[in-house]
Amino acid sequence: MPLTVLIPTPNHDFDPSEVAIPWKILRAAGHRVVFATPDGKQGYPDPMMLSGEGLDPWGWIPGLNKLRLIGLMLRADGNARAAYRELEVDADFHAPKPYAALRVEEYDALLLPGGHAKRV
Asked: Choosing a second label site near 118 at 20 to 30 A (CA), which of 8, 16, 26, 37?
C-alpha cells in the first residue's frame, strides 16, 4: 500500500544527500512524497555539499576557496548528486506546502533530513 511521506526542509542549506536519496527510494517504491518549507517556497540545498567548494580547510579564504581537494571527497557523492538532479525536476519539490498548512493526519510517515549549516 503506497504511503504519503512528508519531507520538511528549510528554505536553504539542507543536505542534498539526505533529501534526494530517500526521495528517490521512496518514489521507486511507489510512495507519494510531499515537501514542506517554512514559507511554502522551494527549498535549496547547501551548495557546498553539491560542489565541494568551501569544504577544504582553506575554504573560507577568498580565491583559495575555489581550490577543491578535500572538498571533492567531502561533498555529496555521485549517487546523491545524480538523485538531486532528478529531484530538481520533480513538480512536488517545486511546490512545497508551508509548514503552517501541514496537518498530521494527511501523512503516513515523516522523514527529517539534516544538514550541517546553521539554518538546518
From this structure: 26
> pLDDT tens digits, residue range 31-90?
999 999 999 999 999 998 988 888 888 888 888 888 888 888 888 899 999 999 999 999
> What's the predicted TM-score (pTM) here?
0.87
- Rounded to 5 degrees, what angle do the CA atoms 102, 41, 76 make? 100
> For residues 31 and 4, what is the distance between their CA atoms, to the nearest angstrom?
6
Domain boundary assignment for the chain: 4-110
Q: How far apart are CA 120 and CA 104, in angstroms?
A: 21
Buried b (16+ CB within 10 A) or exposed e, 62-74: eeebeebeebeeb
